[in-house]
Write a structure and sequence with these properties.
Elements: E1 3-12, E2 21-35, E3 40-45, H1 56-67, E4 75-81, H2 91-106, H3 112-124, H4 130-135, E5 138-144, E6 147-153, E7 160-165, H5 172-177, H6 185-195, H7 197-204, H8 210-214, H9 220-223, H10 230-239, E8 244-247, E9 254-258, H11 263-274, E10 279-283, E11 290-292
């Protein structure tokens, strides 16, 4: 069969874990690649995209070849994407990771997963979406001595994930533009201390810690002007007893972590936030990106 990769969607930040913490979810982007005389791409799935050779899959493909010292080669792509676009669910990161893994497969795996992670985070500028897209599950990442360091964490099977996905888009560039360039020291301390509770909650399987672990002061308050109804819905969810309610990535999607008993009330609040044209998704934790098939230049 031709070379094919499947990459999961991702939800980043989880509140205070800005540009560091993320989890994979079981929506996927699947890309099939074949040798070609020129770069082409055909798209199906969420939204309507007309793609040329400068799409993120092609960019990732070429960059993987370049990093290993191999000459670039044209490729024909068939892209089927289940991930909502520009909604804070990692559609761009999934596309970039797909291209890198396809390019790595063409090189015979010279990058490997570690090299693919370094390249993807370098190109993206932060690892919060690309790490879970590559590795699956929950990932916590940091930069150290010029390299990206990532560790995976377990997700308890009885913790439910729900997403309220509005119909409108929030481009990441717009969501980043509203953030301040200087951070208050008290906010930085509060953010670091709250983020530290995420690994503890996951490793101890203790959902009572998620309320403190998931509340953010660094980015969510500044983005609320782009998100009608977000603050009110988040407060209502927390008052209803859900374990965590946070902005997924740059938004506008809102994520909830809750018990099975809290699913119904969580879905009601998320449906109101998403609006009549939006939707509520119940998701499972996503698996690591998978590559199969072969690159046949014969």
């Amino acid at each position: 069969m031709p070379l094919q990769v499947t990459v999961p969607a991702s939800s980043a930040n989880l509140g205070p874990g800005f540009d560091a913490l993320g989890l994979a979810i079981d929506l996927t982007c699947t890309v099939t690649a074949r040798p070609a005389s020129e770069d082409t791409a055909h798209y199906s799935g969420e939204g309507n995209l007309t793609l040329d050779g400068e799409n993120l899959v092609h960019i990732g493909f070429r960059e993987a070849l370049k990093r290993t010292g191999m000459p670039t080669t044209p490729v024909a792509l068939e892209i089927h994407n289940e991930i909502p676009l520009a909604r804070g669910l990692g559609s761009s990161s999934a596309a970039l990771v797909a291209g890198i893994l396809l390019g790595d497969a063409v090189t015979g795996g010279r990058l490997g997963r570690e090299g693919a992670l370094q390249l993807a985070a370098d190109l993206e500028g932060h690892p919060d979406n690309v790490a879970p897209a590559l590795l699956g599950g929950v990932t916590l990442s940091a930069q150290h001595e010029g390299q990206w360091v990532t560790s995976t964490l377990p997700w308890p099977e009885d913790w439910n994930l729900l997403f309220g996905v509005p119909a409108f888009e929030v481009p990441t560039s717009e969501a980043r533009a509203v953030l301040p360039t200087v951070v208050d020291r008290a906010d930085a301390i509060l953010t670091a201390s709250r983020l530290a509770f995420w690994p503890i909650a996951l490793l101890k399987r203790d959902p009572s810690l998620l309320r403190v672990a998931s509340q953010d002061v660094m980015h969510e308050p500044h983005r609320q002007s782009l998100l009608p109804g977000f603050a009110e819905t988040q407060q209502a969810l927390l008052e209803a007893g859900v374990w965590a309610a946070y902005l997924s990535g740059a938004g506008p999607t809102m994520a909830v972590v809750c018990s099975s008993e809290q699913r119904a009330i969580s879905s009601e609040h998320l449906a109101r936030y998403a609006g009549p044209a939006g939707r509520v998704l119940k998701a499972q934790i996503g698996q690591a990106a998978a590559v199969m098939g072969a690159w046949d230049e014969a």
